[in-house]
Amino acid sequence: MTPKHEEIHDLSLPQVRQACRAALLEVLETMFFELPAADLEVVDAPEVSSCLIRAGFHGSANGAMQLAISCRICCRLAASFLGKETDEVSLPEKCSTARELANMLCGASLSRLKPHGRMTIETPQSIEAPAADSGPWLRYPLEGGFIDVALRYGEGL
């Protein structure tokens, strides 16, 4: 008898792309008052000069979401989220807002992909570089910058 092999799910699958796209639109519009500057696109890797965050999760699905946020956008999102001017936002506030965004996007995406699943999202952490096996990324262009998102889950992750 051959063992059952669960495939790895990432943004190469239309249903994963659709869930992440819907989560991005909802979270950025309702929590940060942001709308896309252009259509979302799938890219092979995130931009190098960006704030990188990883939110792992486990339970009904095991995996991680990674975010790459351009520095200018990170500052603007933090200001919008905190009700401040961009020049009033501190570096710790930018970092904590980026981690909170990762948490919200991960939860919103997973609730669309696994509506009856039970998962725990780990505390999002800043990372030095994206995982080599992160798969394709979804780029969300905003005025003056971007947010790139990778989501990967499956057995053994």
Write the layout of secondary structure elements.
Elements: H1 14-32, E1 41-43, E2 50-59, E3 63-70, H2 71-82, H3 91-113, E4 119-121, E5 125-126, E6 137-142, E7 145-153
Antiparallel strand pairs: 1-6, 2-3, 2-4, 2-5, 3-7, 6-7
Summed up:
The protein is of the alpha+beta class and 157 residues long.
Task: Tell me what you see in this structure.
This protein is of the alpha+beta class and 157 residues long. It has a single domain (14-152), classed as CheC-like (Chemotaxis protein chec, 3-Layer(aba) Sandwich), CATH 3.40.1550.10. 34% of the residues lie in helices and 26% in strands. Strands 1, 2, 3, 4, 5, 6 and 7 form a seven-stranded antiparallel beta sheet that branches. The longest helix is centred in the middle third of the chain and has 23 residues, at 91-113.
Work out the strand percent: 25-35%
Can you tell me the CATH superfamily? CheC-like
What does the overall shape look like? globular
- Can you give the mean pLDDT? 89
Low-confidence stretches: none
Q: Let me know the largest β-sheet.
A: 7 strands, antiparallel
**Total of DSSP H or I helical runs spanning 4+ residues:** 3
Protein name: Chemotaxis protein CheX
GO biological process, one term: chemotaxis
Domain Chemotaxis phosphatase CheX-like: 55-128
Keywords: Chemotaxis
Main features:
157 residues; alpha+beta; Chemotaxis protein chec; 7-stranded antiparallel beta sheet; 3 helices; 7 strands; CheX-like_dom; CheC-like_sf; chemotaxis; Chemotaxis protein CheX
